[in-house]
Sequence to fold (749 residues):
Amino acid sequence: MKNIDSKTHVRGESVYLDDIPLIEGTLFACVFDSPIAYGKLRSIDTYEAENSLGVVKVIIASDLIGENQIGGVVPDEPLLADGEVHFQGMPIAIVLAESEELARKAAKKITADIEPLEPVTDPRVAAANGDLIVPPKKFIMGDCETAFAECEHVFSGLTEQNGQEHLYIETQGAYAVPTEDASIKVYSSTQGPTAVQRAVCRVTGLPMHRVEVDVQRLGGGFGGKEDQANAWASICAVGAQLTKRPVKYALHRMEDMRMTGKRHPYSSDYKIGLTKDLKIIAYEVTFYQNAGASADLSPPVLERTLFHATNSYFIPNVTATAYSCRTNLPPNTAFRGFGGPQGMFVIEAAIVHAAEKLGVSAADIQRNNLIDDGDEFPYGQKAESDAITSWTQGDAEFNFARLQKEADDFNAESKYFKKGVAMMPVCFGISFTKTPMNQARSLVHVYTDGSVAVSTGAVEMGQGVNTKIAQVAAKVFGLPIDKVKIHTTNTLRIANTSPTAASAAADLNGKATQMACETIRDRLFDVAKGLVEAEAVENLSLEDGHVYRNGDRTSLDWKTLVMDAHLQRVNLSEHAHYATPGINFDWSTAKGHPFAYHVYGTAIVGVTVDCLRGRYEVDYVKCCHDFGSSMNTAVDNGQIEGGIVQGLGWMTMEEVVYDDAGKLRSNALSTYKVPDIHSVPKEIAILPLQTNRENLAVLNSKAVGEPPLMYGMGAYFAIRNAIKAFTECSPEFDAPFTPEKVLMNLYSE
Ligand code: MTE
Ligand code: LUZ
Ligand code: MOS
Fold:
């Protein structure tokens, strides 16, 4: 079944923030942001800007009526710089003008007297200075020290991973409209309407019931709008509050790239210990997360790094330590995988390191250590594991040995082109690791014409969550999908939402929708029972717009039933609440059962490297993926393809470059290379894993948003293998593998 948005998308009729019709009198915002990464803000000169054509107001920190604070997890992030600047791109002043162009022109006239201080951009330097966002976090299982002493082989090393620009097609933006009696309605391109509401309330001093946040859809979020939509919505709301006029701000691409945070770069140390028969029995890892200038979502991202530090493997003795390091970069934030990929990269690198030293295939070590049913993760949860089945089924279908032999045969013949192959198993936990966030609500109205309106806390950002939710409602009511309309995500209809994140939106909001629809359906069955003279409601069902009795279609149609119920004064609306059962986590012991379930999968990635030029192509990504039982293969396969390409991009060509002064050098699409149609793998093959397990996913259809990104990581190790087929070398684990780095390694001798 197609994504329900596909029709308006291809006709260009889908509404994004910038398409909302403007109210007369709307002002346009533009910020003046810090030109340097760290310094004392002595004074700001806004005189010229204030007296520029079309400028209505210039706002600085001292003008705010509420608190100058938007930090959600830790209150360490001023909306506008006050006293100090902490990163290049930090908002200092807001210009409000009659047009976008005039606002931008005026913002250029603002100057600030900033006494430069020495910026820190390296997380290890920040850690050495004791500059941490939160105290270090640790997972311990077993006893590493004793285990290492028993190991036949021990290897240690270091890995570097860079950040990643979200590059949602729709940039950040908001539109705030003052409404009657000191209230504000905010349209925001956000994954977290409630997060925006809280931030707006904080900076305006308004209570939450006076601030309405509405989201139609996003042109992509990828985590970049889980927390970082807050600033722009707050800027517009403050402007609306102070001028009593609507205020809009849609960022230009270069502003967005410069002022917003990205995926966290990590620098990590590992030590891996194996027995004679290649069992990994000890693993010690220390992560230095480059958090940027304020906390943002860095603490939970750091935690998920720990949760995924052992990826799909069972390792009985693990000590994993993680530091969130404060640096003078824009605050880094959620990005598809949320720290998980960063944790997985290090264990994969450690395994490759061991394999190289022992002269075996990394796949042998990987295969030999996959987590099995009942094995415990370092955080205490027992695995219901499909790591081995996904590997075995994927291998049976795609034949790793054959692909490896093909590459070897090719390499024996070819001098300047070399092929490399790598296996990439993935295990990703589904649920917010912060248990209280795993709740959602859905509001369902059945109207007297038989049409159905659904509102939930889920935000549509291209991932197809609205399609899935519509499918749930249509299924419960036995209706075609066009009888169901999914409405905007709105804090008046659905309050206290968790962000659409953690791949859990369809599960949480879909389950709440299922509950609401089932409640209404049961009320309708009570009515129908009399109308079709059924002995019991259990004999009734709804299908293709009709009531069925004992499996036979009756003459009672949906519309008649609904109208009849209404005339009998039966409630045709329901607001349902779903909270994931059975999950918990206790940070005092760092143990618990944080995830509703895990998603497993195994990919085989093959690449060809042009060893004269350092360029490469990804020949294929073949994966065996655990969908549970997919409720929409078109949407889910799309998520897999998109996730893989985004993962490949992160690991290969995308390179975020800040100079030592903390200035973003890769600040436009001319200097930041993302995968395009030419860099998409020549083949993406998806084999659904066959199991019959029950799970907590909506209609048994497992979350799919984030896990596939990690298949893309296999490209890194495949490229490394291809390089090693050309020249004897041992490339450092320093991602991404840009063509430049590939070339340096090819000719490192
Ligand atoms: N797919 C598209 N097209 N656009 C996006 O912004 N975000 C990803 C993923 N897939 C994203 C996407 C991220 S980071 C998450 S957490 C999930 O979608 C969120 O949606 P879900 O919970 O409905 O899977
Ligand atoms: N966001 C969050 C997430 O707040 N908590 C999480 O555990 C998470 N996981 C993945 C993506 N976003
Ligand atoms: Mo996704 S990183 O959870 O928004």
About this structure: The pocket of pteridine-2,4(1H,3H)-dione (ligand 2) is lined by residues 300, 304, 334, 338, 432-434, 501-502 (CB under 6 Å). The CA atoms of residues 218 and 669 lie 20 Å apart.
